[in-house]
Amino acid sequence: MKKLRVVFILLSLLITVTFISGWAAATPHTSLKSAVAAAKEHNLPILIKLGTKWCKECKEFEEAVVNVPEIGQAVNDNVVLCILDAEEGPGAKVAKHFTTRNYPSFILINSDQEAIARWIGFGCQDCFVKELISALDDPITITERVKRFQNNPTEDDAGRLGRFRHNEGMFAEAVAYYRRAQEINPASDTHYEMNIFGAMSYGNYFQIFSVDQLIVQADIILNAPWRGDKELLKVAFSMFKAAKRAKDMTLVLPYLKVAVEETAKSPDDGVLNKRAKLMPEYTLYISKDIKQALAFKKENQPQGWLEDANQLNNFAWWCFENEINLQEAEKLARKAITLAKPGREKGNILDTLAEIRYALGDASDAYKYVQMALSEDPDHEYFQKQLIRFKEITSAR
């Protein structure tokens, strides 16, 4: 039965657009309760999509389900779709239950609400379809898979359990499963070293893995015979984030240099686009050309960014973090405040302005703007900590 189901899924995805031009998308459920009822009625699993109003990929997925027949049919023929807001209403409880941190998060469950599989992101439509097909290929619960693995360890189960724990935020457990998969099949086509590095990168953010551990894993990838342009860029981006957290940008320099210089002649437009996003940092930290770094940063900004509150804020924060161009950063942050929606969005920009004013030597101004940020979002713990921080600074002067 399992093989017949997989064949059916693959055939449904290969139907031509002409043949399915009359296909209409089913209305997704916005309540887990109604989704469970529908799943029991039709004997189908449930695909929960947890997202937010500000998540770009979340919107892209919802549009694709309606407008891209291959995506819509893959979903509607095989699962009951339930779309929930992870930050508001009942969806927030579901997100907490499944320890969801990144959006969109896709969680496949059965009608008893037991997890089967989960993955993150919708940056690649083909990747989404592959994830869905893979999950439906062997749709047992995670509890059942763990028991099966304990009795009969296989590379496939180890890899699936690693991915699930990875996306669940259980990074140490994910690394252990990835290493086990690697041990079971050292000749596997899956480069588990990349999976391990990805889990360790996220784990570093939560202080589960140290920077030193991450460096060891990054060096393994750089010296691997199979690593290519995409792997180099992934390592560079991840090490850049780790270096920022460690407040030691020298940590990223070897990876940044190799990634930018070795991908310069790539024939892959996707690789070149990602490389372009590293050029501001490469120019700033390797070439040490502030003017050119700013030029690259502005070139990489999305169209219309000068009228977008969040994009203006992102640019201003980048300037603050790198301690450059602070006067223009202040000007753009002030403009962003006038464009921002009341609440957390405006509060975040006010916090950026506070940091810039402090960097420019005005702690009292910084304190004032953090007060304003907290008034926009009184329950925001970070703003509360910022208020205490700047109050102590101003009181000491």
From TrEMBL:
TPR repeat intervals: 155-188
Keywords in alphabetical order:
Signal, TPR repeat
InterPro entries registered for this protein in UniProt: Thioredoxin-like_sf, TPR-like_helical_dom_sf, TPR_rpt
Q: Which Pfam families match?
A: Thioredoxin_7, TPR_8
According to the UniProt entry, where is the signal peptide? 1-26
Designated name of the protein: Thioredoxin family protein
